[in-house]
Structures are given as C-alpha cells and as structure tokens.
Amino acid sequence: MAGLRWIRLNRTGIDNVPQELAHLEKLEHLSLVHNNVRDIQDEVARLPNLRVVNCRHNRLKNSGIPADLFGHDDLSVLDFSYNQLKEVPPDLDRSKNLLVLNLSHNHVTDITYLDVADNSLETLPPQLRRLTQLQTLILDDNPLLHAQLRQLPALVSLETLHMRNTQRTLSNFPVGLDSLANLQDVDLSYNDLPRVPEPLYKISSLKRLNISNNAITELSSLIDTWANLEFLNLSRNKLTELPNSLCRLTSLRKLYVNSNQIDFNGIPASIGKMHDLEIFSIANNNLETIPEGVCR
C-alpha cells in the first residue's frame, strides 16, 4: 500500500482523516467527499506529492486546515465546498500552482482581496455583490466584453479595481462606479476607450489611475476633480494636448503621457507650477523643443 497514489473515502461516515494515510508518501489524489471530517491532520497535509484534495461536503472549519497543506509545489486542485469555513484560508497564497479552488457554500463573507486575473471569465457571478468587505478586485486579462459588471457598485469597501485588458468600452463601462467612495486605484489599461468614461471624473478619492494603451483623444476639463490623484498614466493613447486644468492637480507626483501625439502647444504653460511633480514622462511625442513651462 505504500505506493498508493489515489485514494477515495467518499461517503464512509468518517469523522477524522485516518492517521494511516500519513504513511502514503506517494499519494497524489485524496478524496473525502460527503463525510463528517472536522480537521485534516498535519501529517496528512505534509504528504509530499499531493496534487488533488477533495473535501467537499464535510464539517471543516478554518482551524481544521493546516498551513502545511498549501506548501506543496504540485498542488493543483482544492475543493473545500460545502463546509463551515468563515474566511479564505490565510496561507492560500503559498499555493502558486493551484488551478482549481472551490470554496462555495461556506460562510465566507469577509473576503478583502480577490484576484481572478488571466482566466477565461466572460461574466461575473451575481453573488459577487455580497462581498461588501472586498477592498481589492483584480479582473485583468479576462474576456469580459459582454459583461456590464453591475455588481461593482455594491462593493462599498472597494479601494483597488484593476480591469486591464478586459475589453472595456464606453458602452460596457460599469454604471455607478462613481458611487464607490473609497476607490483609490483604478487600472483600465489595454482596453478600447476613446475617451475617459464620465463616471471616472466623479471619483474624487482616486489616487492612482492607469488608463494607458487605449485610444483616448482628449481629456475633459473635469480632470481637476481628481484632487487626490498622485499617479496618472495616459501613455500610448492619441492625445494631442493636455488641458490647463491638469495643472490644478496639486497632489500629482507621477505623470506619464509618453507615446501620444502631443506637440509644443499641447503642453500647458503652467505645467512648471506643479511643484510636487516628480516624474513627467513625455517621450515619443511630437516635441521639437522643451517648453519653457517645464523648466520653471
């Protein structure tokens, strides 16, 4: 039995994972579905070759999941659905090669960080709006073209929202985003936006905005509503000028407008009065000389 690689103990009525499993050092697949298991022993969690652990429909609590379980380089599937978890296991970020994670039908309500980047998501589940404690949501690199993302305004604690390369357009830009009073960091780079969506101008709490690699041709004078903005990346768009109201962003420290179509007349004369500006990147534009305002 020492060479056993796959074991299934589904619907056996067990309350504990048998200690004998700790001796199966070649075990790769462990299935304990539909039992009464309350915890997984440390010795079992440390089995060196575990790839798949299926504990669906048990009585697991967070205290019953040892941290060592997440230290396996080959661990690819974890199913803890239909248990009694109240939070996402804190050591989950150690599972660098995890492909499938199922935590559905638990009591998890206090998720603060959710990263689903680089998948094949075409929509978001309506249940997402329940995550009222969520502070960071990463949606980068998903084909969300037909998704209106109506769940977002319900995420009242959201501070960071990254939607890089999610096929955002003016028609599918999330309505009500400006109601998120805590939103500070937005990434909309690599999308199909011809201009900055109007709701963005209403988010006065913004500190960081990356809207590079779009098709933006102009900026509204409403840009001065971003009074707290510290970082602005508008690189690789189609801008020909910067509005004078940009110079009223007194908190701005880093401004990137490289690879646009800005010429000498497109730079506000008062740009040099932005005393807190540390980085002004305007490479690869249409300048023939450095504007005097930059040197003041």
From TrEMBL:
This entry carries the following GO cellular component terms, namely: cytoplasm
Q: Which InterPro entries match?
A: Leu-rich_rpt, Leu-rich_rpt_typical-subtyp, LRR_dom_sf, LRR_domain-containing
Which first-to-last residue range defines the signal peptide? none
Instruction: Report the domain of life of the source organism.
Output: Eukaryota
Q: Which UniProt keywords apply?
A: Leucine-rich repeat, Repeat
This protein is called Uncharacterized protein
Q: Lineage in the entry? A: Eukaryota, Metazoa, Spiralia, Lophotrochozoa, Annelida
